[in-house]
Task: structure prediction
Amino acid sequence: MKNFDLEEPESLAEALALLDEDDSAVRPIGGGTALMLMMKAQFFEPTRLVSLRKVGGALGGIDLSEDGSSLRVGAGTTFTQLQQSPLVQKHLPVIGRVMKTLANVRVRNVATVGGNLAHGDPHLDLPPVWMALDAAVDVVGPSGERRLAVADLFQGYYETSLADGEVITALYAPLVEDRRAAYAKVTTRASHDWPALGVAVSLVPDGDVIADIRIVLGAALDMPTRLTAAENVLRGQPAGDDLLATAGETAAEEVDIESDHRGSAGYKNHLLKIYLGRVVRELMGR
Amino acid sequence: MTVDDPAHNISQSIPRLEGRQKVTGRAEYVHHLRLPGMLYGKIFRSTVPHGRILSVDVSEAAAVPGVFRVVTIDDIREVLPDPYYGPAFHDQPVLADGKVRFAGEPVAVVLAKDPRVAAQAVALITAEYDELPSVDNEVEAMTSDIHVHDELKPAASFPDLNHLKGQSGTNVALGYKLRHGDVEAGFAAADHIFEHTLTTQPVMHTPMEPFVSVADVRDDHMTLHTASQGPSFVRIEIARLLGWPENRVRVKVPFLGGGFGGKLYIKLEALVTALSLLVRQPVKIALSMEEQFFMVTRHPCTFNIKSGVTKDGKIIARACEVIWNGGAYADIGPRVTQKAGFTAAGPYDIDNVSIDSYAVYTNRPPAGALRGFGAPQIAWAYECHTDMIAREMGIDQVDFRRKNLLRNGRPQASGTLIRDAALDAVLDRAAERLGWSLPFDPGGGRIKRGRGLAVAIKGITAPTTSVAIVNLYGDGSCGLYIGTVDMGQGSDTVMAQIAAEVLNLDASKIRVMHTDTDVTPYDMGTLGSRSTFHMGTAVRLAAEEARDKIEALRVELDEPAGSNIPLSELLRRKYGMQAGNIIGTGSFIPEYEKPDPDTGQSRAATPFWGVGAAGAEVEVDTETGQFEVTRLISVVDVGTAINPKLVEAQISGAAIMQLGFTTTEEMLFQDGQLLNGSLADYKIPNMLDVPRDFRNEFVESRQQDGPFGAKGAGEISTMALSPAVGNAVADAIGTYLLDMPITPEAVYRALHPADGDA
Result:
């Protein structure tokens, strides 16, 4: 590991000034749980790290919008803060459930919502859940501020649409009446392994009918990916076994899962079919 | 004047002597050690599994500011003219010499004051290779035209390998043979023949403390500070390499953060010694967790097992062929091949047995001992096989085992008699804990349930020696000088208990010296569940000698026999002040007869028998193949449990480790390259993977010639666990899996064999 500068600015403006839009060796760092592993493995050799830990206000807080239509989560919020937030527990109970299977206490105490998204690691559990919840992020950088859907953040394997010098400041999760969400983390080895795949689903039921649904597949592809064809099979339909089987087939067909250490492509396709059905059944109370 | 109450140190769960040091972070480890002027070495490794080295360009690395020197084998030869080492074969070069034999093999070392500078410089080294075809699989290696070594170079330390010297054109380092009765006649007489081939995968020791060694060469002597389980062997082998007498090589070992058989023989010691000799400064090399994958692994094996059984369920013939994938350097593989080979037919009384066990070289990281010297790999095969026979013949699996089990007084396949082996007791206890005689709910619908058990036996590395010194000081306090390394198993505490029991002292007041070969006497190594039996006996003998000397002193001072005057007072009277010592020494080597090389027959092949059973229950999700081990029971025979709490910790630690080797751990290779060389991708179990109902027990038993009736415990619960889990999975799904590890995908494919694509 080469020497590098560690900056700990106390305001967002100061942090942005310390970043460099032309130098990818200058990086912002949140909890650092992922970046430090890359540095130890010499995959990433920074010249300067700009810690966002002391920025405070602009990156902090969990607040309900005035009209109650969305929840804002500061990008510097740690997973433990997220897990323990009464607002999150009330409005996004799925997040609390995901946390129980995500990493460990030491990691959750420092890992941040913004860093987790900006890292662009396809194996992470939370990004597909945010996508299923139709969340968006605010991004600030040299060319000003913009808001984009979490779905548009991911561009490929460890690739995001964030430019050098840009920082995620907050996440917005819309709150939809009657919406339910769940995530299945599917591991095939030790319990603390990365998932072989993750299936995140949010849906709005109308009696036995699935009025609306979003399905996101994590971990099995280069990036979290929405399964729109499978959604189309299910949307507006009662969630019967045959339809769920069809949706599973459709899901497996619309993506190209590759074999890796955690399972062959065929096996992971099978797991996708099974777990999509299980998650939807669970959400429909069946 | 008072005397302590008579000691009652045996079968007491005395807290670990080092517990407080460890939980307060004060225990000494080599990783903490910094010496004045010390350089750090970082290793540049081969990127190809097999190739001739055309060139190694170190110029850019050497130019990095802060780099002291970059070293290749040519530099090493300046100080070690014949830089090859190994316990069985002198086949491993200190750094790659002309050829690389596995991807990850050390080729060069950068030395710098700052380890980060050294690591940065390593990234600037380049090497060119003339790549050679490589051989990966042990079965292919038996007959392959690709030869990992041009010529076999057995070490003199194993006289039974000498005939291999100079042999070339083979990857077979050792072929072990056992013949008992007439196996072909047995098959001819049998009503049923069963034959299966089972395999185990490559796995790693994964100690929390990675390998680390520091060498400090001064003028005509040197000190090695090393995380080693075998300091006496290290001294002998380093002295041999240097051509020095043993008394100029000092090996010091503090606590170890786990060893499991990995930290045996020479690992980094020869390399740091050569480097320190070369630069005349202390040199430290500390591997990262990721580098451990390239140091030493556990042998995968392919085991073909065939049994002949009479119609009433008696096994009358068993033929075993075991091929061990030893990787690029033999390490202790030949011993694994022999020691595991000799019990490859399992704990059964079979009149006709033939065993062939082969250690073969491949282009993989070297394999060595790992918590069982091969016993867990062979038990996987013979206990799944035994279960399959019982199931196919419609005989209850416990009854079938009971009918065929070896009993005390009967000869094992080697001819060595079974004695003090509680095979029935461990099997019965495991069956009882499983509720074997009670109805079992097999589940239904999506979740199916199964249960299974297994029983296993192992011989112990022999013959091996332990020497101990008990030193009672002028005030009557006691120091114990032994070469047993406490790597977490609690040996300091157990040895103190044995000495204290003989000397009527309080075990917690005894000071156990950590190995320093200048001070502590010889011990063959902390390995193979041997310390409690061997070193424990040496400690008992040493303490008895000290006790006899104290009695002699009483007589000399005209005290009546049985007088309760304390030792401190006796010494004060003899020397006129607080002075003097009482020193007792003990040396122990068990009876041993070398097995006949053609038949493996021996009247004394092992000093005692390691005996264990396991039971498991599983729940299988039949839609996905995902399964949970819901109940895991390990029952072992350790003779007298000198410290029951430590024994239980040994059983549970070994069981969790073996559960990982059974279900989650596998080093994956493709074209000789390791694909998952980090703990993010190589998954050891964590506490959430430990079964809900997890029991670790020992049975009432006594090893007649063990210290206070004790024998070893470290490896015993690794043996029967994998087949118990495998047999439970088979009970649930109706199909036996033959290849380890048992993964959800393998279970799924067994459940849905027709589902080719999925």
